[in-house]
Task: inverse folding
């Protein structure tokens, strides 16, 4: 039985040693280079006394950053990804929580690493570590003592209090996730991924670990191209990228500016997306442009090792419908629980809760917040069984498919009615010349505020919404914006938008 993700890399580096594994276009690493660099750097960490502890990888988004992750794991430690895009105050908070002894950096991040890391931490240039002599005996000893429940990484998510939460995942949950994901996506040695997300998010697991498992190739697409959709498509075609797992906004950025009318990612055969609801009008543009491609909606939280549910689009949808998130991955348990912890009936909203191997270890160094959301299954009175409460509300449609409705904190009471802001957004997104929307609730004034990207007039959009929504759901203010704020991962940043328009 496989117990360690590095077995993927060990096997693949022997099978296809000279095949390109990770590249940003101009620079790349083969599987042999990734393995050899990682083993050498791991030996350097062992020589410094690293042992079963967090090691921060503070590097630019580059193939060497992926190799640095694996080096930390070869050393029997768990990596914590950070890069220069992150605000300095957030990096400092992460360092305060971790108190790491070792920080791996590159030439571009060394100065920041030295200024932000704790004084007692050793800042180690990756290239210097990767030139260390390999210690086969030391690496073998680490592997012999390793368990599949040992942590592999910590990724930090935004906490509701403003304090980042470090989610720790283990080998077993990642192995389970990647093997089922590869089966769903149909990943093979011929797969060429185009990575969109920063490497300090768990979303990149899809490309990094599928690549070393299947002998695929991943291109780390330069971030700036996502501001220039035509150049982005040209890049995709230049490197014959055929599979993407992107946040929805990265796809709608291309379709919303009508790039698909003249420029099509001609090699795409698998388009997976998640993190947000895909507006049906924008989705139809993609499906029309790529009629032979597979489109797969993915859903899942970081606390459950990434994606937990999937739906491959197999039928037509109306402009105001929502794509389902389908059914759970194999070996993943799904519960829909009402507010009184009973199973939601078909069509009845309930909180999406997950159970099984997919659950991560919880929040690093924070047992209190871990215990608030990783809780005993209320339906199981016989033995201890943890579930993760996602805070997302969903329901089962008439086909038995799971449909995401909203976040618990996006449910409001307005004019005596319970409203899900997501319902307003779905209708608004179907309006003419609307590229993106976000609905907020101004609590003090008890007003619904809709912000949108697009060429339509606010008055015209208001008239359209009045024809589609009950009066109590029609926004009180409709505000056109040049661009909706996004997190570094590409998700809609509701908090930043609220600060802009509500204050």
Result:
């Amino acid at each position: 039985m496989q117990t360690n993700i590095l077995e993927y890399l060990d096997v693949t580096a022997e099978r296809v040693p000279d095949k390109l594994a990770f590249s940003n276009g101009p620079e790349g690493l083969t599987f042999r280079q990734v393995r050899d660099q990682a083993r050498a750097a791991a030996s350097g960490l062992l020589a410094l006394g690293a042992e079963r502890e967090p090691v921060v990888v503070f590097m630019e988004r580059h193939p060497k950053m992926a190799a640095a992750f694996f080096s930390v794991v070869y050393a029997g430690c768990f990596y914590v990804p950070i890069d220069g895009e992150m605000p300095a105050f957030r990096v400092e908070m992460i360092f305060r929580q971790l108190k790491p002894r070792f920080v791996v950096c590159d030439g571009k991040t060394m100065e920041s690493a030295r200024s932000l890391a704790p004084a007692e931490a050793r800042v180690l240039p990756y290239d210097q570590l990767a030139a260390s002599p390999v210690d086969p005996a030391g690496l073998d000893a680490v592997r012999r003592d390793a368990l599949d429940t040992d942590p592999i990484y910590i990724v930090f998510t935004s906490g509701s209090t403003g304090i980042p939460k470090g989610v720790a995942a283990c080998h077993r949950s990642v192995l389970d996730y990647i093997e089922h994901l590869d089966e769903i996506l149909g990943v093979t040695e011929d797969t060429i991924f185009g990575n969109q997300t920063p490497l300090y998010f768990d979303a990149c697991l899809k490309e990094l670990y599928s690549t070393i498992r299947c002998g695929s190739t991943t291109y780390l697409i330069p971030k700036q191209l996502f501001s220039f959709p035509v150049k982005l498509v040209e890049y995709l075609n230049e490197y014959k990228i055929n599979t993407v797992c992107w946040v929805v906004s990265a796809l709608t950025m291309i379709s919303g500016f009508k790039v698909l009318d003249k420029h099509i990612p001609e090699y795409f055969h698998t388009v997976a997306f998640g993190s947000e609801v895909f507006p049906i009008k924008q989705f139809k543009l993609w499906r029309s442009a790529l009629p032979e491609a597979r489109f797969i909606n993915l859903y899942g939280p970081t606390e459950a090792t990434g994606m937990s549910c999937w739906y491959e689009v197999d039928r037509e949808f109306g402009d105001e419908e929502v794509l389902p998130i389908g059914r759970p991955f194999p070996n993943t348990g799904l519960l829909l629980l009402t507010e009184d912890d009973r199973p939601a009936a078909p069509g009845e909203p309930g909180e999406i809760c997950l159970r099984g191997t997919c659950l991560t270890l919880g929040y690093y160094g924070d047992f209190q917040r871990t215990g608030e959301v990783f809780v005993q299954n209320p339906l199981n009175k016989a033995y201890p069984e943890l579930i993760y409460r996602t805070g997302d509300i969903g329901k089962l449609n008439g086909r038995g498919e799971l449909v995401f409705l909203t976040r618990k904190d996006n449910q409001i009471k307005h004019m005596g009615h319970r409203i899900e802001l997501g319902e307003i957004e779905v209708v608004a997104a179907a309006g003419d010349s609307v590229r993106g929307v976000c609905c907020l609730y101004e609590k003090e004034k008890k007003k619904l505020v809709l912000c949108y990207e697009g060429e339509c007039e606010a008055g015209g959009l208001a008239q359209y919404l009045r024809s589609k929504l009950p009066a109590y759901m029609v926004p009180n203010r409709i505000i056109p914006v040049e661009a909706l704020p996004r997190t570094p991962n590409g998700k809609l940043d509701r908090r930043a938008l609220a600060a802009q328009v509500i204050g």
The chain has a mean pLDDT of 93. The radius of gyration is 23 Å. DSSP finds 16 helices and 26 strands in the chain. The longest strand covers residues 386-396.
